[in-house]
Amino acid sequence: MAFGVGMHRCLGSHYAKMMFQVMGGQVLKRLPTSSSRRPERFADGEVYAVRKLRSGSRGSAQG
Questions:
Q1: What residue spans define the domains of the chain?
Q2: Name one GO molecular function term (predicted).
Q3: Higher model confidence: residue 2 or residue 62?
C-alpha cells in the first residue's frame, strides 16, 4: 500500500500502520503452535513490509 512521502503523505498512514501491527499480532496469537525458522530482517524506511515469511505449524487448528 502506497502512502506517499513528504507534504503529500497520506494522513491515515500512521493509523494504517498501527492497524496492521494489531492485526498481525492477533493473527499470530490465533494460529496453532507455530515456529519461525529464523527472524526476519527489515530495512529502515517509512513503511515496513514482509517480503517473505517462512513459518511452520504443528498441531491442528481448534476454533
A1: 6-57
A2: iron ion binding
A3: 2
For residue 55, list its beta bridge partners.
36
* Separation CA 3–CA 56 (nearest Å): 32
Residue 17 pLDDT exceeds 70: yes
Q: How many CB atoms lie within 10 A of CB 17?
A: 15
Query: Burial of 33 by CB count in 10 Å (0-12 exposed, 13-18 middle, 19+ buried)?
Result: exposed
Q: pTM, whole model, 2 decimals?
A: 0.41
* pLDDT exceeds cutoff 60 at 34: no
Q: 14 near 39, Cβ under 8 Å?
A: no
